[in-house]
Each structure stands twice: as structure tokens, then as C-alpha cells.
Design goal:
Elements: E1 2-9, E2 15-21, E3 24-31, H1 35-49, E4 50-58, H2 64-81, E5 84-88, E6 99-100, E7 105-110, E8 113-118
Parallel strand pairs: 1-4, 4-5
Antiparallel strand pairs: 1-2, 2-3, 6-7, 7-8
Helix pairs in contact: 1-2
Length: about 150
């Protein structure tokens, strides 16, 4: 079975999954719909075909529910199958552009600090998968980035 690394961007629809062999992107999935419905289905197919060594995921900010489901699913998978898990903020996957939040607000990253701000003329930037999997860029700090204040 081919050993691979995965990158998962489940901040909003579409869900992105990249499969990497020796650091190179060999397969890309762009899946519309709910993370909770699509993540298990597509991971089942991936695990039938590949031996997953490491998973990198966008740990936020973004859709609260998508981040939560993604984290719980990948943390469980990591624990059960012994897969290394790494995190990085979602700005890595959209060129450090604002990310839609709620109520006309956006998540903005400035000087490594993420804030909730009103962005004039907000244009949603699509997320993308990197062409290379460079483990040195990612962190073992996988805690979700729930930036929204408690209600």
C-alpha cells in the first residue's frame, strides 16, 4: 500500500483533501456539501487505497461547526490509527486573505494575530492545496482556533 500524507481544508464548502507522495501532490479532492457527511465517506475511500502517515489540517478560523467536526474526526483517526497530526491556520491556504465569519465580519490575520473585523468590499478568496507537503511549515499544535467570542 502506498504511503502518503494528507492535507485537509474543511473550513467551509468545498472540503479540500490533498494526497501527497514524497511531498508532491498526487491527487486532489474538492467536495461540495457538509463536512460531517463528506469527511467520513472520503476518508474511508482514502484509507482503503493508501497508508496515511501524516495529516495536516486547517485548524481555523472558519465555520465553527466544520472546524469542530474536522478536529474531532481527525484527532480520533490519529489516535486509533497512529497517524501523526499537524495543524496550521487557514490563512496558509488562501494567501493570508480575510476569511468570512458571521454578521458581515471577517477573520483577519495581521502580524500573526487573528482578529474579527469588518472588512469593506470583502471578496471571498478560495482556499487551495499546496503543491508540496513540507512538514517543517506545520505545527504539532492542533487545537482548533475558535476566534469567535462566547455568547
Amino acid at each position: 500500500m502506498l504511503k502518503v500524507d494528507l492535507v485537509v481544508v474543511a473550513i467551509e464548502s468545498p472540503l479540500l483533501i490533498g494526497i501527497y507522495e514524497n511531498g508532491d501532490l498526487i491527487e486532489k479532492m474538492e467536495i461540495e456539501g457538509q463536512t460531517s457527511e463528506n469527511l467520513p465517506i472520503h476518508f474511508e475511500k482514502i484509507l482503503e487505497k493508501y497508508r496515511v502517515e501524516r495529516v495536516l489540517f486547517a485548524n481555523g478560523p472558519g465555520s465553527f461547526m466544520a472546524i469542530k467536526i474536522n478536529y474531532i474526526f481527525l484527532k480520533t483517526l490519529s489516535t486509533v490509527l497512529g497517524i501523526e497530526l499537524f495543524g496550521i491556520d487557514a490563512f496558509f491556504f488562501n494567501g493570508n486573505q480575510p476569511i468570512k465569519a458571521i454578521g458581515g465580519m471577517s477573520f483577519v490575520k495581521t502580524e500573526n494575530v487573528i482578529n474579527l473585523e469588518k472588512v469593506e468590499n470583502f471578496t471571498k478568496m478560495p482556499f487551495y492545496l499546496p503543491e508540496k507537503f513540507d512538514i517543517s511549515l506545520y505545527s504539532k499544535d492542533i487545537e482548533p482556533l475558535y476566534i469567535l467570542p462566547a455568547i
